[in-house]
Each structure stands twice: as structure tokens, then as C-alpha cells.
Design brief:
single chain; alpha/beta; 8-stranded mixed sheet; 13 helices
Length: 328
């Protein structure tokens, strides 16, 4: 009877060990599946990236800046020149601004600058502080022998533009913002997960995420060929060293601009999101920028942060009217 009792006592332990073995095997199988999946994602990304390098079509022209090559596009033959600057992380500024370029180029000479790390420009190891970015953009403008121009920019160009107009006041005739950033806007003291973004890029998970998220330009005025080019260039540049370094400096670049305001005598035109703005106090922040300007105007438009995707015609018309008004 004692032997039978011992056998009975051992049965729960035997069942428990079997359950543990099943659980461990299941975990092992799941881990193996995840490992194979990640390996496939990584391999597909490597192969796709190499394939796409030969499919990206060149545009614009490369000019020497700080010992590297910066890409710019020049469209239009107008007497006045507009220098266009992109928002942070825009994959291909030239293609992204295409609807706006089409509206402006019949009347102005439009120069789109692709800063280092953007579009078809080289990357750089130089720290992405405002001073460096602004001086590189200015060098590009000088290389093109442009002495007088209107500075127009999207998003973070509002931060770099503030510094720019103070450094080169005799060159900039006006500043035009497209939902531009404001130095004191809330939330810019955040610390970004740089290592996570780098891992997403290197592992191929970023490509996977972009593929499953669908067409980012659906319903926008871009043809399929342009959309495919923007997709490939965006994947090439996203979370690369230059872009990540700029991300690391976003907080300090915003803080460095806290004391800056647009010069009172500089014509200032700001287009901003009028409905459902992305930041608390977005409209009052821009109203404060325009308030002290002798030739300042704020125009609220319906649309998302990339107003130039959907409101290019309105931006072009309002901009021309503004310039005619201040020049009359």
C-alpha cells in the first residue's frame, strides 16, 4: 500500500513536468518562428534597398557645399526668387513640394534646397545644430549666385528660418511659413528613442511598417511614379545618421530660438492649420509672431500639417496677393 501511495504522489509531478515541457516547446517554436520572421524581414530589406538604389531617378542638380554634394532644384524664370526649405525628415523635399512648385514657378524662380540627409543630398557627420544647417543652406544659395530672395519653408523651417533671417538680413526680402514651428510651442523638450528608430531601420521593420500602412499619399495630387519615387527615397533616408542626429538636436535647437523673433520690418506671411491644429495654442503662437510685424499676415487654411499638399493653389494665390500688396 505504501508503494501505491508513493506512485500516486508522483503522478501530479509527472503531469506538471509534461506541462512544463509542452510550454517550453511552445515557447521554443514561437521564438523560432519570430526569429525566422525577423530574418526574412531583414533579408528582404537588404535586397530591396539594393534594388531600389538603381531605381531612384535623379532630379535637380548637385552643388558643392562644405566639401559634400547638396541637391537643389530650380524651376521657373520669374524676376523674384523663392528659396523653399522642407520640414523635418521630409524624404524628398523636391517631390514633396511638387504641387506648390507648379503653382509658384509660372510667376517666380523657385529654388528647392534639399539639406544634407534629405532627398538626393549627401549625408554629413557634422552636428545638426541650427548654426550648421543655416550656414550650409546659405552656402548653397551663394553657390547659385542668388543675392536677394524670399525665404519660404515648412514646419521646422520656422526655427531655422528665424536664425537665417537674422544672420542674412540684407538678402531675405520676406519670410513665408507653411504651418511652421514656433520656438515656444509645447512638447519640444521630449527625448526621442534614437536607438529604437535606428533598430527599426536596420532590422527592416520600418520597411514592413510602411508597406502595411498603405499609400501615405492616397488622394493627394501626386502621380503613381512620383509616389513610388517618394516611397523609395523616404526609405533610403529615414532614420539615417544625419536625420537621427538632427532629431537629437531638436530640443536644443528649439530652445536656442526662444529669444528670437522675426524682424519688425521683414514682411511676414504665415499659413497655418485653421482646423484641428496639432499643438495646443497653435493659432495664438503664430498670431504672436505676426503681431509686431509691420507687414505681417496670418492665414488659416483647412488641411493637415502638410498644407502644401492640398492647399497649394490657395497658398500660391494668397502669397502673390501679399507680395503685390507690400510692393505697391
Amino acid at each position: 500500500m505504501e508503494l501505491k501511495g508513493e506512485a500516486i504522489n508522483k503522478r501530479p509531478d509527472t503531469r506538471l513536468r509534461k506541462m512544463l515541457r509542452i510550454i517550453l516547446k511552445s515557447i521554443g517554436v514561437i521564438a523560432a518562428i519570430i526569429g525566422i520572421f525577423l530574418a526574412i524581414v531583414f533579408t528582404v530589406n537588404i535586397i530591396s534597398s539594393k534594388s531600389e538604389q538603381g531605381k531612384i531617378e535623379s532630379y535637380g542638380q548637385l552643388i558643392p557645399v562644405d566639401g559634400k554634394q547638396m541637391n537643389v532644384l530650380i524651376e521657373g524664370q520669374g524676376e523674384e526668387t523663392i528659396v523653399l526649405l522642407p520640414g523635418y525628415g521630409t524624404g524628398s523635399p523636391v517631390l514633396d513640394f511638387k504641387p506648390l512648385i507648379e503653382e509658384l514657378s509660372p510667376f517666380y524662380k523657385v529654388v528647392v534646397i534639399e539639406p544634407f540627409g534629405y532627398g538626393l543630398s549627401d549625408g554629413t557627420e557634422k552636428e545638426r545644430i541650427t548654426d550648421h544647417i543655416v550656414s550650409e543652406i546659405h552656402e548653397a544659395v551663394q553657390q547659385l549666385n542668388i543675392d536677394q530672395y524670399i525665404l519660404m519653408g515648412h514646419s521646422i523651417a520656422g526655427i531655422y528660418g528665424l536664425d537665417y533671417v537674422h544672420k542674412y538680413p540684407n538678402e531675405v526680402k520676406a519670410f513665408v511659413g507653411i504651418d511652421t514651428s514656433v520656438p515656444t510651442q509645447p512638447g519640444m523638450d521630449v527625448t526621442f528613442p534614437i536607438k529604437t528608430f535606428k533598430l527599426l531601420k536596420q532590422s527592416g521593420l520600418l520597411r514592413l511598417m510602411m508597406n502595411v500602412s498603405g499609400d501615405a499619399y492616397d488622394g493627394l495630387p501626386f502621380d503613381d511614379r512620383t509616389k513610388e519615387q517618394m516611397r523609395m527615397i523616404s526609405l533610403k533616408n529615414a532614420y539615417e545618421t544625419t536625420i537621427l542626429n538632427e532629431m537629437e538636436h531638436i530640443s536644443t535647437n528649439f530652445k536656442g530660438a526662444h529669444s528670437l523673433t522675426f524682424p519688425k520690418d521683414l514682411p511676414l506671411l504665415l499659413f497655418i492649420q485653421g482646423n484641428n491644429p496639432p499643438v495646443e495654442g497653435w493659432i495664438p503662437l503664430h498670431e504672436a509672431q505676426v503681431k509686431d510685424s509691420e507687414h505681417g499676415k496670418l492665414i488659416k487654411l483647412d488641411g493637415g500639417h502638410y498644407l502644401h499638399h492640398t492647399q497649394s493653389k490657395e497658398i500660391g494665390e494668397q502669397f502673390r496677393a501679399f507680395m503685390n500688396e507690400i510692393q505697391s
